[in-house]
Write a structure and sequence with these properties.
Largest sheet: 7 strands, parallel
Helix content: 40-55%
CATH topology of the largest domain: Rossmann fold
CATH class of the largest domain: Alpha Beta
Strand content: 15-25%
Bound molecules: 5'-O-[(L-methionyl)-sulphamoyl]adenosine
Number of strands: 19
CATH architecture of the largest domain: 3-Layer(aba) Sandwich
Distance between the termini: 54 Å
Shape: elongated
Number of helices: 18
Radius of gyration: 26 Å
Low-confidence stretches: none
Mean pLDDT: 95
Length: 518
């Protein structure tokens, strides 16, 4: 059975009809930070991401490019894998729905549902949106002046009539409501949970789960005129990656049910309604949580290919540096809300919080140590109440951060860390170690020791957010790699006075506009 120290986190698998953009980087970043946090906190983590390669949308994109869908998906899927390196993501697996392990898994799930009488053959006549890969009831659509209909997402829809297998979703409404009731944190944030509950309370209709008018997908076992609905195919990736249909051994035993499916708000219904219904119907335990995050706009405008304002994460990283981008995306917006990306906001966070608050603190303290304490961890005398309070605050951050991370409250975690950083800056000003240099060098040593120890803690807890920069900061304190987990928080592992330190270096440069002003 999965013990308490296991953590399985997943990103949605990305459609390969398009190259990666900021939205994809954002979802995966949130998962990466959680995965890193849990690893440092002693968990055995599985962090999964991948690509969603079947369905009409991908088939059409391949046709438009005049290439075979497999060659096309190979190419675009690689772009998503390249992004992982650029963003310093630490996924443990990368799944593609065109892999054989996945075909086996989806077909096994289908057989299971079929055997249990959850799937039946009929005809579908209704609206379908290829862009959303979703079926819509006419009541959900809006009529445009030219007489055509659009989905609530703004996507065009087409009328479809074809033989189709259906999943008895209508039979699962009450059970889903009971499940949400018994698992109040299954859907976060709470506002989104309420939306889902009211959608399900409104009554569910059986769901068409196969199509016969295109070929790019997993065939229905025993009836290969039918291709499985791409969402049934895609959602199953989460169990494929832990070895389904082998439920009795290995990774399935260790990691299922997943602790968290991270998704964007646009795909919550698939994850919080269809997916648990499929699983319960197949006799498989549903995941523990689905978190729906918000959407980014660009300088106040909706991001879209047709507007030509798509943000390329690689360009952002080249311009501002990776860790500043990672920090900004999780700091700027309360996680779960929509947010706006703007150059001004990015530079304000970089210069105000990273370069000034944190960068300067480390630079000031480490330079003083270098110049005045023989370039070694200072020796300290007895701690005053002020020292003690500062140290306790630094040692205590982990508790608050852990609580926030457990509910995906990234911005709150960062805010609490910044409370300590600002307190350190206040402490430096109050204690004025530069004055103590002449008046009381022993006391100066104690003050610098307290600060170095606080910086060690700040860097330890910030590692998941800014792994590269915090690794540099911990190098400057000469902390060995084995001593960088959360086990090393607190007095028992405090810095050893007298240990030689390397020459200090700045960790967060200020962002300066170049002369062209870009
Ligand atoms: N293939 C499906 C998911 C299947 S999971 C079993 C899919 N793929 S997607 O590539 O279209 O979108 C993936 C994620 O990117 C979604 O979580 C979506 O919310 C996110 N984003 C796309 N644009 C976004 C923004 N502008 N801002 C933030 N995230 C957005 O859906």
């Amino acid at each position: 059975m999965a013990g308490p120290k296991r953590y399985y986190v997943t990103t949605p698998i990305y459609y390969v009809n398009d190259v990666p953009h900021i939205g994809h980087a954002y979802t995966t970043l949130a998962c990466d930070v959680l995965a890193r946090f849990k690893r440092l906190d002693g968990y055995d983590v599985k962090f999964l991401t991948g690509t969603d390669e079947h369905g009409q949308k991908v088939e059409k994109s391949a046709q438009d490019k005049g290439v075979d869908p497999q060659a096309f998906t190979d190419q675009v899927s690689q772009r998503f894998r390249d992004l992982l390196g650029t963003m310093n993501f630490t996924n443990d697996d990368f799944i593609r729905t065109t892999e054989e392990r996945h075909k086996i898994s989806v077909q096994a799930l289908w057989d299971r549902l079929r055997e249990k009488g959850e799937i039946y053959l009929d005809n579908y006549a209704g609206w379908y949106s290829v862009r959303d890969e979703a079926f819509y009831a006419e009541s959900e659509l809006t009529k445009k002046p030219d007489g055509s209909f659009v989905a609530p997402t703004g996507a065009p829809v087409e009328w479809v009539e074809e033989p189709s297998y259906f999943f008895r979703l209508s039979a699962w409404g009450e059970k889903l409501l009971k499940f949400y009731d018994e698992n109040p944190d299954f859907i976060l944030p709470k506002s989104r949970r309420n939306e889902v509950v009211s959608f399900v309370s409104g009554g569910l209709q059986d769901l068409s789960v196969s199509r016969t008018t295109f070929k790019w997908g997993v065939p229905v076992p025993g009836d290969d005129a039918h291709i499985m609905y791409v969402w049934l195919d895609a959602l199953t990736n989460y169990i494929t990656a832990v070895g389904f249909p082998d439920e009795d051994h290995g990774e399935f035993q260790t990691y299922w049910p997943a602790d968290l499916h991270m998704v964007g708000k646009d795909i919550l219904r698939f994850h919080a309604v269809y997916w648990p219904a499929f699983l319960m119907a197949a006799g498989v335990e549903p995941p523990k949580r689905v978190f729906a995050h918000g959407w980014w706009t660009n300088e106040g405008h909706k991001i879209s290919k047709s507007l030509g304002n798509v943000i390329d994460p690689i360009e952002l990283v080249e311009k501002y540096g990776l860790d500043a981008v990672r920090y900004f995306l999780l700091r700027e917006v309360p996680f779960g809300n929509d947010g706006d990306f703007s150059h001004a906001a990015m530079v304000a966070r970089m210069n105000g919080e990273l370069a000034n608050d944190l960068g300067n603190l480390a630079q000031r303290v480490l330079s003083m140590v270098n110049k005045n304490c023989d370039g070694a961890v200072p020796r300290h005398g007895d701690f005053t109440a002020d020292d003690q309070e500062m140290l306790d605050a630094a040692h205590g951050i982990i508790h608050k951060v852990r609580e926030h991370m457990d509910v995906q409250g990234f911005n709150h975690a960062i805010e609490d860390i910044w409370v300590v950083i600002r307190a350190c800056n206040g402490y430096v000003d109050r204690q004025a170690p530069w004055k103590l240099k002449k008046e009381d060098p022993a006391r100066m040593g104690t003050v610098l020791y307290v600060l170095a120890e606080c910086i060690r803690h700040i860097a330890l807890v910030l590692q998941p957010f800014m792994p590269g920069s915090m690794s540099k900061m911990l190098d400057l304190l000469e902390i060995s790699t084995e001593h960088r987990t959360f086990d090393f928080i607190g007095y028992a592992h405090a810095l050893e006075p007298g240990r030689a330190l390397p020459a200090p270096q700045g960790v967060f440069p200020r962002f300066v506009e170049d002369e062209k002003g870009d």
